[in-house]
Amino acid sequence: MLLNVRNNYYICIYLIAMSYTVKVFYNKKDLPELDDVSFFHDASLFDLYNDIPYYTPFMIVCFENEEPIAALFGHIMRINRLLNTFVFRKCYVSEKPAYYKPNLPELEIFGLLLDKLVKEMKTRVFYVEIRNLGDPIFGYKAFRDNRFFSIKWINIKNSLQRKRKIWDQLSRSRKNQVNKAKRKGVYIEELTDKDELTSIYKLIDKNINWKFSHRFPPYKYFDNFFHSFILKEKGKIFITKYQKKIIGGIIIGLHKNETAYNLYYWGKTKSYKSLYPTIYTIWYALNYAEENGFNYFDFMDAGYLHEKAGKPRFLLQFGGKQHATRRWYKINWGWLNFFASKFYD
Length: 345
Prior knowledge:
Blueprint: H1 2-18, E1 20-25, H2 45-48, E2 55-64, E3 67-78, E4 89-94, E5 98-99, H3 106-121, E6 127-131, H4 140-145, E7 149-159, H5 166-169, H6 172-183, E8 187-190, H7 197-207, H8 219-230, E9 235-242, E10 245-255, E11 259-267, H9 277-291, E12 296-304, H10 311-316, E13 321-331, H11 334-344
Parallel strand pairs: 4-6, 11-12
Antiparallel strand pairs: 1-2, 2-3, 3-4, 3-5, 6-13, 7-12, 7-13, 8-9, 9-10, 10-11
């Protein structure tokens, strides 16, 4: 009896898979018309990586009778600008796929998208990383079937729909620090002039500790963000200043009036420690999202699960809640992926 049920289950999955086709697109102009339902899986992201030679964007689209029903955007990053070999290329995907119709078998479709991703990246990159999923069990079977292993992470998100305002959710120390920064003359300006972008870029690059495997994006990336997102009201850059000097800032992505995503934040915390530039900047961004009707402010993956200090602890003092999530990895060297799976599992 159990065997028959199992066989029927796999037959159903097979029939579902047979009704769909999955294609990979490396050029925006080749894409079918897609609805804007996800910030991280939208065709406009091709513009973000435009004319950057060591970034290769792509989108995997699932079709039902030639109608797109789901899509997964990702990009290949070359971490060494001179060496363009398999070992120096990584693939990144953020968040769950975009689904364009209701009542779809989302997990089965995700499995098809993931299968295609794995086959497409097998000889192109050293490893594939999928992050910011939110739900720790989303796609678990599909990931395991494709021999991914996971690392537990913390996702931090602020709900802006509560009766308590953002200010009331701040810890006492955060409130004091914001008030001190205000009294000392710290203020925020929204970037609307591209001329300031160069100096801002240099400041971010200098003040963020980027690892070798996560190189800071080039200036062209932010230039593209300005033209493709800020000018189209899909993103904001807020600059924190003191006596006309830039001491911090934050870059946020905006998805309609639903979610504001924290993409980068920085502050000259050593030179201006008593002005709390990072704290003031984050508070301002949260307040902006609340006043403009957004439902959530998402800090996304903030650190390892159960980490008691550092970034998660810092961000939680702004009133958000932490949720357990996972980052999924697949190394395209079978033996290395096997040992990594054993170690992390």
